[in-house]
Every structure is written in structure tokens, then in C-alpha cells.
């Protein structure tokens, strides 16, 4: 195999795929990136951990087609270390790849490209174009409440739903829940997919790249990603120009989130989001490290935040608030409230409550496309 490629294109492509390679797998081939040169003048890069797969293509001067698998981190680091300009890549029969630019060169030990796992192909899977700004919003508003516990895969994931023109994501770790929606005019489809957290983070990277490239080109109109799955068993595909990301789905039942969301509350407060966020950050400085517990007392036109830690001391702050309903005092994990307030962008938020043992509901004032539910804690 032999081809010549621009360093900038090579680094960009390797950067995108090498993060998916499974460098700790018991299967050595999964720590590699597949590099396959085609006689048509394109080079395909691919990586997989058998859950998540990514492929990308770049233009190149292909002198001799072929393929090789090279260690993901090693090839990425050496390509970055080569001088700017064109890089010549040659692979001999022993699968040693020589990467050369100017007077600098590297010889990397490789593996046969034929040994690399086959990559999922969208084929005739129906794909729907979704504005990347909407997808970015949904991820930002929900990803923080996915569980980090891989032993609970149904919670270490995001529920992704397409229903007519409604695009929805829901996440929960058992202590809090986030549901966000966007309306996509003209969208048609009916999908209900449970996508692993790792895959959601990679989708976010793809979305950020598309948005950045659109900004660099100063293009008008919405940038989109194509999304689809042949069935609820997956895999799901996210596709942009020159790149395809695919993921297996979680084979488990997501909690019935509609039953978690309170149907009604009898107490409520409207607070300035940034003032509430600042007070929470301040008061939580002396909260117990394990629970980050903060007490919220609402009475009259005031919301009083307080925390106490026998080993550190105590803290308190007071906010102006528009309150309705009876007085109430309730405890929350401050981190959960901080996360949701950070994700929102409205000036004011509504905090709806019932009793001290009932979940609290956070909504952006003036919008009805997000709801956050946080379970209370005894303090």
C-alpha cells in the first residue's frame, strides 16, 4: 500500500477515530486504527470497540491500494510529529508502515487490515436529517444526569425518541431525571432508542465539529446530521459528510419516565437562575462532602439556602423569590441543582415542590421544552 496525504487532513481524521479505539481490550486489534487506501483516490480510517464504531474518509493520492491496522495512539502521535505538508505512507508485506515527510520518518509495526473487525454499514437504513443545534441542545440539557455506573446500563444511557416532528432525549441516574424536547419541522419518523453514554459523548463531539466547521465557513442555514436505525435493536447511525458513527443499543428497559414526573405540585418559586446558581455554589462549599446536601427553606418572598458540616462549619444565603403555596423546607443534593441550572439558559427558573419528601421539579420560565426532576434528601 502507498499513498500521499496532506498532514492536516490526516491528523484531523486520526484525531476523530483514534478516541474510539479500545486500548485496554483483550483483543489487540481493537487498539488499532484501520487505514485502507482505495484506488479511487480515498483513504478510509476506522476504529471500533465493538460497541461504538467510527469511519471517516479523506482524499489522497493513492499509488497502491491496500490496508493496514496501526496502533491508534502511536500513529496519531507520529503523524502529528511529522513536518507540515504532504505525508507519504508506504506499507510493506510484513505490515510495517513507513510514514515520511521531509527528512523525518517513522516505521510503525502494524497488523493485517483483513484482521480488523467489519464495520456496521447503514446500507438502506432510512436516515433523517436533524439540525445539529437541536441535537446539541438536547445533549447539553440531559447528558449530566446519565449514570456513570456501567453495571446499570439502562441508566448509563440516554433515551432518544423521534415521534413525528418531536425530537426528545431523557436521562436518569435514579436520583434525578432530565427530559428535553425540540420540534423539527418536516421531520418524519418513529424511533425509540436507548443509546449508551459513551456513544452520546461521541455524538456530542461530532455535533461540535459540524457546528465549528459551519462557523468557519460562515454558511447560512442550519447544519444537520443524518440519524437513523433499522429497528429498535439497532445499531443507530449518525452520519455527516465524510464520517459515520454507529453504536449498538442498550438491550434493557428504560424506566417509565412519565411516572417519575410529578403530575402536579402545590408549592412553587420563581427565581433568578444565575443568582440561584451563585448561592448554591457558595453554600455548598461547606456542605458535607459525601452528600453535598443543601437545605432550602421557602417562606414569604424569600428562599433561604443553608448547609452545615460538623467538620467545617455552616453557610447560609438568602434570595428574593416569587413564591406560591404554603411554606416548605426541603433538602437537595446541591450538585444536582447546580448541574441543571448550568444547562439552562433562561433568566429565570421555576422550582415546583410539594412536601419535603416529594421530588422537586425545575423548569425554565417561558419555555415548556425541558423538565428536570430531582429527588429530595433528608438533612
Characteristic terms for this protein:
alpha+beta; DNA Polymerase III, Chain A, domain 2; 3 domains; 9-stranded antiparallel sheet; elongated
What structural category do the secondary elements indicate? alpha+beta
The helix content is 10-25%
Strand order of the largest sheet: 5-1-7-8-9-6-2-3-4-17-16-15-10
**Main β sheet profile:** 13 strands, antiparallel
What proportion strand? Answer: 35-45%
Work out the radius of gyration: 25 Å
What would your notes on this structure say?
This protein has 379 residues and is α+β, with helices and mostly antiparallel strands. It contains 7 helices and 26 strands. The chain has helices spanning 7-18, 72-81, 132-142, 197-217, 257-260, 273-283, 334-343, and strands at 2-6, 32-38, 42-48, 52-59, 61-64, 66-71, 86-91, 96-101, 104-112, 128-131, 157-163, 166-172, 176-183, 190-196, 224-229, 236-240, 243-247, 267-272, 293-299, 302-309, 313-320, 322-324, 328-333, 348-353, 360-364, 370-374. The strands form 3 sheets. Strands 5-1-7-8-9-6-2-3-4-17-16-15-10 form a 13-stranded antiparallel sheet. A 9-stranded antiparallel sheet has the order 14-11-12-13-26-25-24-18-22. α1 (7-18) runs antiparallel to α2 (72-81), α3 (132-142) crosses α4 and α6 (273-283) runs antiparallel to α7. The longest helix has 21 residues, at 197-217. It is elongated, with a radius of gyration of 25 Å. The termini are far apart.
